[in-house]
Amino acid sequence: KLIIGVGGVSSLDEALQMREAGADLVEIYTAFVYQGPKLVREITKVF
Q1: From CA 3, how far away is CA 32, in angstroms rounded?
Q2: Residue 3 CB coordination number (10 Å)
Q3: Domain, as residue range, for 25
Q4: Cβ–Cβ under 8 Å, residues 15 and 28
Q5: Residue 16, phi then psi, degrees to nearest 5
Q6: Which of left, alpha, beta for 8 (phi over 0: left; psi -120 to 50: alpha)?
Q7: Cα angle vertex 47, ends 41, 9, to 5°?
Q8: Number of domains forming the structure of the chain
Q9: pTM over 0.70, yes/no
Q10: Which of 25, 31, 27 is nearest to 10 (CA)?
Q11: pLDDT tens for each residue of the chain, 47 residues long
Q12: Furthest-apart CA pair in the chain: how many Å?
């Protein structure tokens, strides 16, 4: 089964916390709207 972490992710550290908690995927929406593609690039470099 796939676990998707959603909600409250607005930084790389928070995305990593979701992964450490067991999420296979992390969804980012509001942070993307406010911070743009820079945040996504930062996170995808680590994932």
Answers
A1: 21
A2: 12
A3: 4-46
A4: yes
A5: -65, -35
A6: left
A7: 70
A8: 1
A9: yes
A10: 31
A11: 999 999 999 999 999 999 999 999 999 999 999 999 999 999 999 87
A12: 31
